[in-house]
Protein: Phosphoribosylglycinamide formyltransferase
Organism: Arcanobacterium phocae
Amino acid sequence: MTRNKARIAVLISGNGSNLQAILDAAATGALAHGTVELVISSSSQAYGITRARDAGVPVDVVRRQEFATQAEFDDALSQIIDQYQIDLIVLAGYMNILSKQFVERYPNRIVNVHPSLIPAFSGPGFYGLKVHEAVVAAGVKVSGATVHYVTEVCDGGQILAQETVPVYETDTPQDVQKRVLTEVEHIIYPRVIEQLSKEIAGN
Ligand code: GRF
Protein backbone atom coordinates (compact mmCIF):
# COMPACT_ATOMS: atom_id res chain seq x y z
CA MET A 1 0.00 0.00 0.00
CA THR A 2 1.36 3.42 -0.87
CA ARG A 3 0.64 6.08 1.71
CA ASN A 4 2.13 9.35 2.70
CA LYS A 5 3.16 7.96 6.08
CA ALA A 6 3.10 4.48 7.56
CA ARG A 7 0.47 4.15 10.29
CA ILE A 8 2.10 2.74 13.42
CA ALA A 9 0.64 1.02 16.50
CA VAL A 10 2.91 0.66 19.55
CA LEU A 11 2.10 -2.18 21.96
CA ILE A 12 3.28 -1.69 25.55
CA SER A 13 2.97 -3.20 29.01
CA GLY A 14 4.95 -0.92 31.30
CA ASN A 15 7.11 2.16 31.53
CA GLY A 16 7.12 2.86 27.81
CA SER A 17 10.51 4.54 27.51
CA ASN A 18 10.88 3.06 24.02
CA LEU A 19 7.42 4.41 23.17
CA GLN A 20 8.68 7.80 24.38
CA ALA A 21 11.75 7.58 22.15
CA ILE A 22 9.48 6.85 19.17
CA LEU A 23 7.10 9.71 20.06
CA ASP A 24 10.09 12.04 20.44
CA ALA A 25 11.40 10.95 17.04
CA ALA A 26 8.01 11.79 15.55
CA ALA A 27 7.97 15.18 17.30
CA THR A 28 11.46 16.16 16.10
CA GLY A 29 10.93 14.95 12.55
CA ALA A 30 13.40 12.05 12.81
CA LEU A 31 10.46 9.73 12.20
CA ALA A 32 9.45 11.46 9.00
CA HIS A 33 7.71 8.59 7.22
CA GLY A 34 5.65 7.18 10.06
CA THR A 35 2.97 8.35 12.43
CA VAL A 36 1.99 6.77 15.75
CA GLU A 37 -1.76 6.37 15.40
CA LEU A 38 -2.46 4.03 18.29
CA VAL A 39 -1.03 2.67 21.53
CA ILE A 40 -2.31 -0.64 22.87
CA SER A 41 -1.47 -1.52 26.46
CA SER A 42 -1.79 -4.95 28.05
CA SER A 43 -2.34 -3.30 31.42
CA SER A 44 -4.35 -0.31 32.61
CA GLN A 45 -1.48 0.51 35.02
CA ALA A 46 1.25 1.02 32.41
CA TYR A 47 2.98 4.40 32.70
CA GLY A 48 3.30 4.36 28.91
CA ILE A 49 -0.43 5.18 28.77
CA THR A 50 0.32 8.59 30.28
CA ARG A 51 3.11 9.12 27.74
CA ALA A 52 0.71 8.30 24.88
CA ARG A 53 -2.03 10.58 26.21
CA ASP A 54 0.47 13.42 26.69
CA ALA A 55 1.36 13.06 23.02
CA GLY A 56 -2.31 12.99 22.01
CA VAL A 57 -2.21 9.39 20.78
CA PRO A 58 -5.33 7.21 21.32
CA VAL A 59 -4.87 4.36 23.79
CA ASP A 60 -6.71 1.08 24.04
CA VAL A 61 -6.19 -1.34 26.93
CA VAL A 62 -6.58 -4.98 25.85
CA ARG A 63 -6.11 -7.37 28.74
CA ARG A 64 -5.44 -11.02 27.90
CA GLN A 65 -7.25 -12.22 31.04
CA GLU A 66 -10.50 -10.76 29.76
CA PHE A 67 -10.63 -13.30 26.94
CA ALA A 68 -11.41 -16.99 27.34
CA THR A 69 -9.09 -18.12 24.56
CA GLN A 70 -5.99 -16.92 22.77
CA ALA A 71 -8.00 -16.86 19.54
CA GLU A 72 -10.56 -14.44 20.99
CA PHE A 73 -7.76 -12.24 22.31
CA ASP A 74 -6.05 -12.31 18.89
CA ASP A 75 -9.30 -11.33 17.18
CA ALA A 76 -9.87 -8.40 19.53
CA LEU A 77 -6.33 -7.16 18.94
CA SER A 78 -6.62 -7.57 15.16
CA GLN A 79 -9.94 -5.79 15.09
CA ILE A 80 -8.48 -2.66 16.70
CA ILE A 81 -5.34 -2.79 14.59
CA ASP A 82 -7.35 -3.16 11.39
CA GLN A 83 -9.84 -0.49 12.44
CA TYR A 84 -6.95 1.98 12.69
CA GLN A 85 -5.56 0.71 9.35
CA ILE A 86 -2.20 0.03 10.96
CA ASP A 87 0.75 -0.73 8.68
CA LEU A 88 3.41 -1.44 11.29
CA ILE A 89 3.01 -3.05 14.72
CA VAL A 90 5.79 -2.06 17.12
CA LEU A 91 6.25 -4.10 20.30
CA ALA A 92 7.91 -2.00 22.98
CA GLY A 93 8.17 -3.88 26.25
CA TYR A 94 4.98 -5.76 25.37
CA MET A 95 4.62 -8.76 27.68
CA ASN A 96 1.77 -10.73 26.10
CA ILE A 97 2.37 -13.72 23.86
CA LEU A 98 1.21 -13.23 20.30
CA SER A 99 0.08 -16.47 18.65
CA LYS A 100 1.36 -17.93 15.39
CA GLN A 101 -2.06 -17.17 13.88
CA PHE A 102 -1.75 -13.52 14.89
CA VAL A 103 1.80 -12.97 13.65
CA GLU A 104 1.01 -14.72 10.37
CA ARG A 105 -1.71 -12.13 9.70
CA TYR A 106 0.97 -9.41 9.56
CA PRO A 107 4.04 -10.83 7.82
CA ASN A 108 7.06 -8.49 8.11
CA ARG A 109 4.81 -5.96 9.76
CA ILE A 110 5.58 -6.66 13.44
CA VAL A 111 8.87 -5.64 15.06
CA ASN A 112 10.30 -5.98 18.55
CA VAL A 113 13.29 -4.71 20.50
CA HIS A 114 15.09 -7.19 22.73
CA PRO A 115 17.67 -6.01 25.29
CA SER A 116 20.49 -8.38 24.36
CA LEU A 117 22.56 -9.40 21.37
CA ILE A 118 20.30 -12.13 19.96
CA PRO A 119 20.85 -15.10 19.91
CA ALA A 120 22.65 -14.57 23.25
CA PHE A 121 20.38 -14.16 26.28
CA SER A 122 17.18 -14.50 24.28
CA GLY A 123 14.23 -16.85 23.91
CA PRO A 124 11.75 -18.11 26.50
CA GLY A 125 12.46 -16.81 30.03
CA PHE A 126 14.76 -13.99 28.93
CA TYR A 127 12.77 -10.83 29.59
CA GLY A 128 13.16 -7.68 31.64
CA LEU A 129 15.89 -7.64 34.27
CA LYS A 130 16.40 -11.41 33.89
CA VAL A 131 18.28 -10.74 30.66
CA HIS A 132 20.74 -8.41 32.35
CA GLU A 133 21.12 -10.65 35.41
CA ALA A 134 22.18 -13.45 33.07
CA VAL A 135 24.58 -11.11 31.24
CA VAL A 136 26.29 -10.10 34.49
CA ALA A 137 26.36 -13.70 35.76
CA ALA A 138 28.00 -14.88 32.54
CA GLY A 139 30.71 -12.22 32.81
CA VAL A 140 30.43 -11.16 29.17
CA LYS A 141 32.25 -7.96 28.23
CA VAL A 142 29.68 -6.62 25.78
CA SER A 143 25.93 -6.61 25.60
CA GLY A 144 23.48 -4.60 23.54
CA ALA A 145 20.06 -4.67 21.96
CA THR A 146 18.48 -6.17 18.87
CA VAL A 147 15.57 -5.03 16.73
CA HIS A 148 13.98 -7.91 14.88
CA TYR A 149 10.89 -8.98 12.99
CA VAL A 150 8.44 -10.95 15.09
CA THR A 151 7.58 -14.49 14.08
CA GLU A 152 6.00 -17.32 16.07
CA VAL A 153 9.50 -18.20 17.33
CA CYS A 154 10.27 -16.23 20.50
CA ASP A 155 13.04 -13.69 19.64
CA GLY A 156 13.61 -15.69 16.44
CA GLY A 157 12.65 -13.38 13.55
CA GLN A 158 15.07 -11.73 11.14
CA ILE A 159 17.47 -9.28 12.77
CA LEU A 160 17.08 -5.71 11.54
CA ALA A 161 19.59 -3.89 13.75
CA GLN A 162 21.94 -4.65 16.58
CA GLU A 163 24.36 -2.48 18.54
CA THR A 164 26.64 -3.07 21.50
CA VAL A 165 27.58 -1.46 24.80
CA PRO A 166 30.43 -2.42 27.12
CA VAL A 167 29.73 -4.37 30.31
CA TYR A 168 32.02 -3.41 33.19
CA GLU A 169 33.09 -5.68 36.05
CA THR A 170 31.44 -3.42 38.58
CA ASP A 171 28.09 -3.33 36.75
CA THR A 172 24.88 -4.44 38.41
CA PRO A 173 22.13 -5.85 36.17
CA GLN A 174 20.37 -2.50 36.60
CA ASP A 175 23.45 -0.66 35.30
CA VAL A 176 23.51 -2.83 32.18
CA GLN A 177 19.76 -2.46 31.70
CA LYS A 178 20.00 1.33 31.82
CA ARG A 179 23.01 1.48 29.47
CA VAL A 180 21.34 -0.84 26.94
CA LEU A 181 18.08 1.12 27.08
CA THR A 182 19.46 4.63 26.83
CA GLU A 183 22.51 4.06 24.63
CA VAL A 184 21.10 1.46 22.26
CA GLU A 185 17.35 0.76 22.34
CA HIS A 186 16.21 4.39 22.34
CA ILE A 187 18.53 5.12 19.42
CA ILE A 188 18.22 2.11 17.12
CA TYR A 189 14.49 1.43 17.52
CA PRO A 190 13.23 4.80 16.18
CA ARG A 191 15.82 4.52 13.40
CA VAL A 192 14.62 1.10 12.25
CA ILE A 193 10.99 2.21 12.52
CA GLU A 194 11.74 5.19 10.27
CA GLN A 195 13.49 2.91 7.76
CA LEU A 196 10.58 0.46 7.65
CA SER A 197 8.05 3.29 7.54
CA LYS A 198 9.83 4.72 4.53
CA GLU A 199 9.64 1.38 2.75
CA ILE A 200 5.98 0.89 3.67
CA ALA A 201 4.99 4.44 2.70
CA GLY A 202 6.77 3.89 -0.60
CA ASN A 203 8.60 7.20 -0.73
C1 GRF B 1 13.08 -2.90 27.07
O1 GRF B 1 14.29 -3.24 27.65
C2 GRF B 1 12.79 -3.80 25.89
O2 GRF B 1 13.94 -4.24 25.23
C3 GRF B 1 12.14 -4.99 26.55
O3 GRF B 1 11.37 -4.44 27.59
C4 GRF B 1 11.91 -3.18 28.00
C5 GRF B 1 10.80 -2.18 27.88
O4 GRF B 1 11.14 -0.94 28.39
N1 GRF B 1 11.44 -5.77 25.57
P1 GRF B 1 10.18 0.30 28.14
O5 GRF B 1 8.78 -0.08 28.63
O6 GRF B 1 10.19 0.65 26.69
O7 GRF B 1 10.75 1.39 29.00
